[in-house]
Write a structure and sequence with these properties.
It is built from 14 helices and 16 strands.
Length: about 400
């Protein structure tokens, strides 16, 4: 009888202990990272196949194993569609046994995948999508927003343009969460700095014809035509602006989100002098250049976008966290990632309670054809935007994870 009582006490103690601590080791014999991205549609050049290459580089650099177990990269194409992203995320977790998802270059797709990851108690790292709600109203305990957001874009590009004295704005906005949020955040900056918004027009994502939208912007007479869109939509808007004679006129076309892949697609002649904000630029310092040179060898000679560099950095930090905590338990890994200062030669900063990776941002200016030395030499850094200025203050956060 005494032996039975002692055994019961010991068993109860073990249950209590396991309930308050993390299981050591891996959940199975392999760590699987799912790169969930747009491989074939409107945002594929921004993240897409280059993100897969970046994740594989990180795994190779880490040594191919963590805690003695193999690391595998899985991929799935969202085509930047929310329903597809949600179903692919579920498939990666349930069928392919993914431990973490990284990528997602459209807000709707990112939010759908985040919801599935949260339900499964797994980590999601958003590198490509931009909307502030990802770490604000829609934040989850298992998500990290890594590279940039609409708050940073508005405080970077938006403020820089207003500060030049161009106060009258007209928006050409992608009609979904990202475009709406970017317009809203930039409008706040415009009004706070003495400017005004004269109007705007919304277009469907992945539009084929921008003539009517840009004609409305032109007829508004606004000093600034702000493009609150991205990827193929930004490219199409700028091309149409050139056809209408807006480029080089008294009106200034300002892409509020742009990547070097967009500049390369449009050419320096059309984009020279444009400013845009990024979370990372390949030619900013020697460390970035060394990474970019290695990436170019792996990926068709193309310099990495800020998002692709973010995939590399985030993948590496995730693997380091597993190694440090000796487990792939999502709660333990997230706790560790929030507790450390990240400084890997590419990004430097800290992951906050809301999941936002707070780091410096960079305002770039597109070079002229004469300034450019090669196809990847498209821009120069003209301003560093300090992390505290580029990130929504936690005191203003609507994230349920933030203690007021």
């Amino acid at each position: 009888m005494k032996r039975s009582v002692i055994a019961n006490v010991v068993a109860a103690s073990l249950v209590a202990f396991s309930g308050s601590s993390y299981a050591a080791g891996l959940t199975d014999d392999e760590v699987r990272i799912g790169v969930l991205t747009d491989l074939s549609a409107i945002y594929s050049d921004i993240e897409g196949p280059g993100a897969v290459a970046a994740a594989k580089m990180a795994v190779k650099d880490f040594g191919g194993k963590v805690l003695g177990k193999k690391i595998t990269i899985l991929t799935a194409d969202t085509q930047s569609k929310a329903d597809l992203s949600g179903s692919k995320a579920r498939e990666l977790f349930e069928k392919d046994k993914a431990d973490m998802l990284i990528g997602n270059v459209s807000t709707a797709a990112a939010l759908a995948a985040m919801e599935v990851a949260d339900q499964k108690g797994k980590i999601s790292i958003v590198t490509g999508a931009a909307s502030l709600p990802i770490t604000n109203e829609k934040c989850t305990a298992t998500n990290i927003h890594y590279v940039y957001d609409t708050y940073a874009l508005s405080r970077g590009t938006g403020k820089a343009v207003v500060d030049t004295g161009k106060k009258d704005w007209f928006f050409v906005t992608a009609d979904y969460a990202f475009g709406h949020t970017l317009e809203r955040d930039t409008t706040e900056v415009i009004l706070a700095n003495g400017g005004k918004v004269m109007g705007g027009v919304k277009h469907p994502i992945s539009s084929q014809d921008f003539s009517s939208f840009m004609a409305q912007a032109q007829s508004s007479g606004a000093q600034v035509i702000a493009l609150a869109n991205a990827g193929g939509d930004t490219i199409g808007s700028v091309k149409q602006a050139a056809e209408l004679g807006i480029m080089g006129s008294k009106q200034t076309v300002v892409p509020l989100l742009m990547f070097i892949s967009d500049v390369q697609a449009l050419g320096l002649k059309q984009t020279s002098g444009m400013s845009f904000t990024v979370g990372w630029y390949w030619d900013y310092n020697e460390s970035n250049r060394k990474f970019a040179q290695r990436f170019m060898k792996e990926f068709k000679g193309k310099a990495p976008t800020s998002v692709q560099a973010g995939v590399y950095s985030a993948t590496m930090q995730y693997l380091k966290a597993i190694d440090a905590t000796k487990t792939d338990d999502a709660t333990a890994v997230m706790k560790h990632l929030r507790s450390i200062e990240i400084d890997d030669g590419l990004f430097k900063g800290k992951i906050r309670a809301d999941g936002k990776f707070e780091h410096d941002m960079y305002l770039l200016q597109v070079k002229s054809p004469k300034e450019s030395k090669n196809k990847n030499d498209v821009a120069k850094v003209i301003k560093i935007i300090a992390a505290k200025d580029a990130t929504l203050p936690l005191s203003e956060s609507k994230c349920k994870l933030v203690q007021k």
